[in-house]
Amino acid sequence: MNPQLDKAGKLRHFLTTEFLPKEILLQILDTAESFTRVTKRNVKKVPLLRGKTLFNLFFEASTRTRTTFEIAAKRLSADVVNINISTSAQSKGESLLDTIANLSAMHADMFVVRHARSGAPFFIAKHVAPHIHVINAGDGSHAHPTQALLDMYTIRHFKKKFDGLRVAIVGDITNSRVARSQIHALNILGVSEVRVIAPKTLLPVAIERLGVSVFYDIRLGLKDVDVVIMLRLQRERMRGINLPSSQEFFNTYGLTIDKLSVAKHDVIVMHPGPINRGVEIDSSVADGNSSVILPQVTFGIAVRMAVMSILAGHSI
Amino acid sequence: MKLSILNGRVIDPTSGFDRIEDLFLSDGMVSGVASAPDGFVSERVIDASDKIVCPGLVDIAVRLGESGEEYRATLERELRAAVAGGITSLGCPPDTTPVLDQPGLVTMLVDRAGALNSAKIFPVGAMTQSLEGDYLAEMVALKQAGCVAFSQGDSVLPNAGVLKRVMEYASTFDFSIWLRPQEEFLSHNGVIHEGEVATRLGLSGIPTIAETMAVSIILMLAKETGASIHLCRLSSLSAVELVRLAKHEGVKVTCDVAINNLHLSDIDIGFFDTNYRLTPPLRSTRDREGLRAGLVDNSVDLICSNHSPVKYDYKKLPLEESYSGASGVEMLLPLTLQWAREEGIPLIVALAKVTSAPRRILGNSERKIAVGEIADLCIFDPEYPWIVNDNSILSSGKNTPFWDSELVGRVTHTIIDGEVVFTKDEDKSL
Q1: For A210-235, b where at least 16 C-beta lie within 10 A, e where not — what string?
Q2: Which of residues B429 and B99 earns the better pLDDT score?
Q3: Cβ–Cβ of B199/A140 closer than 8 Å?
Q4: Which structural domain, as residue segments, surrounds residue B17?
Q5: Chain B residue with minimum CA distance to A96
Q6: Is the pLDDT of residue B70 over 60?
Q7: Would strands B57-59 and B87-92 be described as parallel, antiparallel, or unpaired?
Q8: Tens of pLDDT, residues A119-143
Q9: Which of A234, A311, B38, B51 is the least buried, fewest Cβ under 10 Å from its Cβ?
């Protein structure tokens, strides 16, 4: 059974895009669209989560994701508590379950969880009281479903549809929770092809079983694509047993105007950020006409508002 | 104790005996088959109608303590669990706390277990000091203290140079070396089988080649040194194929499979269920079928429970942080019966995999259910359905992939040296 859904098939937690029905993904995108109008108003708040308390539980450092969740929750009139757990209870030896039990006792309604361990939000969701909703804000290399949904929102915003699209994801797939969530979402929403482009050292085994075609040569992989998603290469992985150097990676897989020229003329370039200029993407592309990297960030707030309000039982 | 076991279906894989017969035990021995010896007066009669009477189970991989805990604390409890599972002899791996690398520790374990009047313990000694893989352990002294073989347990295997010396030294004295094949540099930090499931869950994998590479190196060294090797807990189809080939070539090698790997695959892990984190990892359904086929053609010699109880708190963690292992002694028999039913294997053949075959690996002589033989027996109801839960499991390890599942087949009596050491529904003492 999918632990994200209740018995009626409604979203109870938002933990991964995998195995979710297409209707739920579209419901999130449609709800987000109505919230983008809110975010453009002078008075940006709506009272959907008034009286509810949301805990941002970040077991792994993050500024941007945490901030967008905080803004999203505040625009829905929720009370927000930010807890940076890497410097708090866990370092004093408290178990994850005890931490969760204590926070639940403070009458939490929603937990937004980021954790370095794949599956940790599932573990938390399994142990919270029935009224508490858990949102995965990134777990290990497993999933980052709100990031993937804001990427889907961005694609739909610029391309108006999913069918017929060719999407290429470039970079460190092995360690990317974003890539996994994107691959599932793109396939559920019905794009015509998802490609992954990387050297074999950055591709996990059996990745094709997730519904992607694999390319080792970026010039072949980018041919005729509508969307390019560049992944961030973690600094600690730029040199070592996966890659010899960031320079060699940029030369072979870094996105430049030249490499991008084989894509469709109206291609859009996305990046979940923060970007490493000159490592996975050249500034001329990041700041160029095809780039939609900044709109992605803006849409992130509306998408997170949508997920929270749907979990709380409101959809628009 | 003079004991009569009446009307049971007696199945003895060693002698090929399978028929309904009465057994009479006295002075620790079988003293009558079909008819009681002259002057025999029963002090206790067990009605074994509709039940099966077979040799006591032999389980060569039983950890008697919880991970991170001293075995002493739970020795008694785990032995009670073992006899509740019909096990009368068991082998314990050396990677306990403390490591079984000192003759004194082995003597202490054997003595303590002996005093409990429970299952017979056959310690497997450490083959290297502290299991660090650098220096040979005192195998001769350990043997004298009671060790039946030598092993690294689940610790990292030594490099090929040390491994060769271990084999040369052990084969000098005809000692058997038990090795769980896993190449450390290919499996480091791995959590589950490397494959589609690990990729979906974003977990680092333990690739099949970590096992096959180690099997290949071990088999080549075994061929070179003439050592006799037992490969522990094979988990992959390709490892079984390598062993099959080596056996044809006459390499002195045997191997076993853990009962959970015979029934489950990585797909069963579902959404990060820590009860399915096992060593070796559950691999693909193809691997599972390969292990089953290996048992049928005797490439795989036997089944063990790989009993490794884990403290409750160590399973209540995110999967990557949780401890590996599962309780198994009480599930070994019903899961062996389930495998036999699913594959259409005759009971006598299936029971051989948990009685006579592991007995040979422990280095014990063949033993029949016959007059004059030691009476270590298991009586079970093959049709009895039961649920694996807190009420039914004696082991301190309340963790197994089969928790809350219904299993069929339950031990009703376990007899060691002619004495009834377990009777179902009577054992409320723990």
Answers
A1: bebeebeebeebbeebbbbbbbbbee
A2: B99
A3: no
A4: 3-54+370-423
A5: B317
A6: no
A7: parallel
A8: 999 999 999 999 999 999 999 999 9
A9: B38
Spell out which chain B residues touch chain A, with contact meaning CB-CB distance below 8 angstroms: 194-196, 198-203, 205, 207, 271-272, 313, 316-321
Nearest beta carbon to residue A122 from set B200, B272, B317: B272
For residue B53, what are the contacts with CB-CB under 8 A and spacing of at least 6? Answer: B5, B8, B9, B10, B11, B23, B369, B377, B378, B379
**How many CB atoms are closer than 10 A to CB B39?**
6
pLDDT band (50, 70, 90) for residue B430: very low
Contact between B202 and A95 using a beta-carbon 8 Å cutoff? no
Is there a domain that residue B307 lies in?
yes
CB contacts of A203 in chain B (<8 Å) are: none
Tell me what ipTM this predicted complex has. 0.94
Residues B176 and B301 in one domain: yes
Task: Indicate the residue type of B365.
Answer: S
How far CA B407 is from CA of B325, B333, B334, B380, B382, in Å, comes to 20, 10, 6, 13, 10
**Domain ranges across chain A:** 22-143+297-311, 145-294
B40 with B133, same domain: the answer is: no
Interchain contact A13–B (C-beta under 8 A)? no
Q: Best interface-test mutation with A: which of B186, B201, B323 has the largest number of A CBs within 10 A? A: B201
Domain count, chain B: 2
Over residues A217-245, the mean pLDDT reads: 91
Q: Is the pLDDT of residue A316 over 70?
A: no
Q: End of a domain among B334, B361, B388? A: B361
The encoded tokens of residue A98 equal: 């005890």
| A158 near B CB under 8 A | no
- State the smallest CA–CA distance between residue A178 and chain B in angstroms: 11
Q: What is the pLDDT of residue B117?
A: 87
Tens of pLDDT, residues A265-302: 999 999 998 899 999 999 999 999 999 999 998 899 99
* Average pLDDT over every residue of A68-81: 95
Tell me if B429 is assigned to some domain.
no
Q: Which residue of B has its CA nearest to A118?
A: B202
Residue B35 covered by a domain:
yes
The answer to whether residues B122 and B240 belong to one domain is yes
B192: left (phi over 0), alpha (psi -120 to 50) or beta: beta
pLDDT category of residue B142 using cuts at 50, 70 and 90: very high
pLDDT at residue A88, rounded to an integer: 59
- Report the alpha-carbon distance of residue B41 to residue B26 in Å, rounded: 10
> What pTM, to 2 d.p., does this model score?
0.94
Residue with the larger pLDDT of the pair A91 and B183: B183
Q: Name the minimum distance, in Å, from the CA of A115 to any CA of chain B.
A: 10
Nearest CA in chain B to A202: B199
CB contact under 8 A, A119 and B317: no
CATH of the domain at B354: 3.20.20.140
Q: What is the distance in angstroms between the Cα of B319 and the nearest Cα belonging to chain A? A: 7
Domain A22-143+297-311 has CATH 2.40.50.1000: no
Tell me the three state secondary structure of residue A185.
helix
- What pLDDT digit, counting tens, does each position of B253-301 carry? 999 999 999 999 999 999 999 999 999 999 999 999 999 999 999 999 9
How large is the average pLDDT for residues B85-98? 93
The CATH superfamily of A145-294 is Aspartate/ornithine carbamoyltransferase (3.40.50.1370)
Q: Which residue of B has its CA nearest to A208?
A: B196
State whether B202 and A115 contact (CB < 8 Å): no
Contact B318 A119 (CB under 8 A): yes
- B70 CA: distance to closest CA in chain A (Å): 22
The pLDDT of residue B322 is above 80:
yes
Give the Å distances, CA to CA, from A208 to A180, A211, A316.
Answer: 12, 5, 36
Domain boundary among B361, B380, B401: B361
Give pLDDT, residue B72: 47
Q: Does A209 touch chain B (CB under 8 A)?
A: yes
CA A73 distance to own-chain centroid: 17
CA–CA separation, B57 and B89 (whole Å): 7
CB-based contact B272 A97, cutoff 8 Å: no
Q: Are residues B109 and B168 in the same domain?
A: yes
